[in-house]
Each structure stands twice: as C-alpha cells, then as structure tokens.
Design goal:
Blueprint (H helix, E strand, L loop, with lengths): L9 E6 L17 E2 L2 E2 H10 L4 E8 L4 H10 L7 E6 L4 H10 L7 E4 L9 H12 L4 E7 L6 E2 L10 E3 L7 E3 L3 E4 H10 L10 H7 L5 E4 L10 H17 L3
Parallel strand pairs: 1-4, 1-6, 4-5, 7-12
Antiparallel strand pairs: 2-3, 6-11, 7-10, 7-11, 8-9
Helix pairs in contact: 5-6
Bound molecules: cytidine-5'-triphosphate and magnesium ion (MG).
The site of cytidine-5'-triphosphate (CTP) has 22 residues, from helix 3.
C-alpha cells in the first residue's frame, strides 16, 4: 500500500513518569487527585475523548506501572480507546521514547501529551490531529504570552542577573501539548537527535533540529501545565466551573 492510501491511525502517548518535584512532596504528580480523580485519568480521558484517538499509551513511573494499570481499570474510559501501560525513564525524553516503542505497526501519527496537562479541551486535541492528517509533520498548540520575556545571563542564586535581550513579545508563543507528529518523523528525531543533560522538554524541538518544519495551531488556556502548587488551585477551579456549567 502506498503512503497516500495508507489509512490514518492516531495514537496518544502520555508521559506520566515524572516525580513532580516543583509541586512539592507527595505522590508522583500524575497520580495526585484533581476533583477526586487522579490527574493521569483526566489526561487519558482528554485524549480518548477525541474520536481520532484509538490507542493511548501511558508511560508510568518506572516502579508504578502495576499501580497505574489498576487505576486505569478502576476508572471508566470510552470503550473505543485501548490503553497500554509501559514503564518510563529518568528523563521526559526517555519516557516518550519508551511510549513510542510500544506503538503497534499500523499507527501512522502520534500525539504526545503531558499527564500534567489534564484539562486540555477535546477541540484543541482535534485541531492538532487535523493539522497532522492534513499533512503537517509536526504540530504544536501554543498561546501568545501575557508577560514580557527577558533573556538574562544567569548568575549566582540571590544575585541580580544582567539582562541580555528582550525578544519581541508579539513573535513569542508558549507551547502546550498534545503535540502531534507524523510517527516516522518523530521516530527519526528520537533516533538522530541526542539531547544532553535533562533531555528535551519539548518533542517538537527535536523535530526542528532535523530541519523539518513545525507549525503552531491555537492552544487553549485550560491546557496549562500543573507544575507548582498554585496550578492545583487553578485546576480545581476549572473543574468546579465545568461541573457547574455542564454535565461534565
Ligand atoms: N515526565 C516523564 N518522565 C520523566 C520526567 C517527566 O514521563 N522522567 C513527564 C511528567 O510526568 C509530565 C511531563 O513529562 O507529565 C511534563 O514534565 P513536568 O511537568 O516537568 O513534570 P515532572 O518532571 O514530573 O515535574 P518536575 O519537573 O517539577 O519534577
Ligand atoms: Mg520535569
């Protein structure tokens, strides 16, 4: 079958193996409750809610795959979505790679979605999928910035840092997930691009380094990442508003 006639199959990989150091002590971030339900379950439902997604691969903390499997079995998900669980790695990049390795051969495109963005609306997911199916090899949802950004020369902790530059805010975007990819392109990025230290925090950045074009589609303010304690307060408020305004 030629590439043009090969049917689309889109899977989602959810890296959920991080500890959540910036959120403070407690359970791994993805297993913390939001509105009484683990953040990871919200994230899986957010992907499975898209009719385009027929497989979700959850990348669990390396020592927590059995616990995550139990959680998934306890919480109802749409029937059409198959959910696999694999153990993650020490960096987000290694975790994403472990998820990609679990994909069956008929998958043609993939969404990479942070478990830490549990409240992304389905319309945002669908617009990323659509842009990939329309032929973009890499798609990121993103929003304009509210704050002006300064580039600094990082100094010693506690010391004032000299400003090096002020990029034009109108040209900057804050990127979110799910990021969508032609699977062959993302696999090539993972095979060819080595990233030092912490690894890549952004999958599209690796594809950019291949020289492959990446495009931005509109993100959504509810796709914010739960990173620090105040983000939990905001997430609870968003859930409470959804519960009050629809039969969510
Ligand atoms: N992630 C992962 N494997 C890792 C590190 C991160 O799967 N080794 C995942 C996290 O679970 C999260 C996503 O990558 O869903 C985005 O990372 P981040 O928000 O930085 O989460 P943590 O790394 O858990 O948080 P922190 O950096 O504060 O420790
Ligand atoms: Mg992290």
């Amino acid at each position: 079958m030629s590439d043009e006639t090969r049917p689309h199959r889109t899977a989602a990989v959810i890296p959920a193996a991080g500890r959540g150091v910036r959120l403070g002590p407690g359970a791994p971030k993805a297993l913390r409750a939001l509105g009484g339900t683990p953040m990871l379950i919200h994230a899986v439902r957010a992907m499975a809610r898209s009719r385009a997604v027929s497989l979700v691969v959850v990348v669990a903390p390396a020592d927590g795959a059995a616990e995550v499997r139990l959680l998934l079995d306890e919480h109802p998900l749409p029937d059409r979505a198959e959910v696999l669980v694999v153990p993650g790695g020490d960096t987000r990049q290694e975790s994403v790679r472990a998820g990609l390795q679990a994909l069956p051969a008929d998958v043609t495109s993939v969404l990479i979605h942070d478990a830490a963005r549990p409240l992304v609306p389905v319309d945002t997911v669908d617009s990323v999928v659509e842009a990939v199916r329309d032929g973009a090899p890499a798609v990121v949802p993103a929003l304009p910035l509210a704050d002006t950004v300064k580039e600094v020369e990082p100094g010693r902790p506690g010391e004032p840092e000299p400003v090096v530059a002020t990029p034009d805010r109108a040209r900057l975007r804050a990127v979110q997930t799910p990021q969508g990819f032609d699977l062959a392109t993302l696999l090539r990025a993972h095979a060819e691009i080595a990233v030092d230290g912490e690894g890549a925090t952004d999958d599209a950045g690796m594809v950019e380094r291949l020289g492959v074009p990446v495009v931005v589609v509109p993100g959504h303010e509810e796709a914010f990442k739960v990173t620090r304690p105040l983000d939990l307060v905001l997430a609870e408020a968003v859930l409470a508003r959804r519960r009050a305004t629809d039969a969510y």
